């Protein structure tokens, strides 16, 4: 009986530790997101104040148009950079949470296998077929979870590369557009 209580205690402690780690990951990610947003807001306020002062000092309308084009290009570059930073924080949190889930599932699987083996040692004669069926079912479920995890990781990697390619393409398009606008 004490062996079962010990197993239960270990399982409870592992669950508690996983919950604490989940909370820490969530809080750290939220903190980074809030800091990123506050920094972006401060920078935007400073940039807009500076731009307004510069525009009031310009006398030539063409110079004002060129300056506004330059400001628009800078704003888009900053927005792309900010979205990249946001994506990195969210992607990092997702990656950490995925690792946590994989570890938790792994610990649970080990605990379950240990319990099945313990039951198998004390099982009555003739129950081998039933225990083998349980072990086979469990192995199939573990393989399915593993396959799902790998597929989810591949989707995350594909999404990551797609987002990076899209932000680079956007930044390049803005730069090319700004160059064309400056030469016209």
From TrEMBL:
Pfam families attached to this UniProt entry: Phasin_2
InterPro entries: Phasin, Phasin_subfam-1
Domain of life of the native organism: Bacteria
Domain named Phasin: residues: 6-104
Protein's name according to its UniProt entry: TIGR01841 family phasin
Taxonomic source organism: Chromobacterium subtsugae
């Amino acid at each position: 009986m004490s062996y079962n209580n010990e197993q239960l205690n270990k399982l409870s402690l592992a669950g508690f530790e996983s919950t604490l780690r989940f909370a820490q990951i969530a809080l750290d990610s939220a903190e980074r997101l809030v800091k990123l947003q506050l920094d972006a807001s401060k920078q935007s306020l400073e940039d807009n104040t500076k731009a307004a002062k510069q525009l009031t000092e310009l006398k030539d309308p063409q110079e004002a148009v060129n300056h506004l084009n330059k400001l628009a290009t800078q704003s888009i570059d900053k927005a792309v950079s900010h979205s990249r930073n946001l994506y990195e924080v969210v992607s990092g949190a997702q990656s950490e949470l995925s690792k946590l889930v994989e570890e938790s599932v792994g610990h649970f699987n080990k605990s379950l296998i240990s319990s099945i083996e313990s039951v198998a040692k004390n099982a009555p004669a003739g129950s081998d077929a039933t225990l083998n069926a349980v072990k086979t079912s469990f192995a199939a479920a573990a393989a399915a979870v593993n396959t799902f995890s790998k597929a989810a990781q591949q989707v995350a990697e594909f999404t990551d590369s797609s987002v990076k390619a899209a932000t680079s393409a956007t930044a390049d398009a803005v730069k090319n557009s700004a160059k064309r606008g400056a030469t016209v």
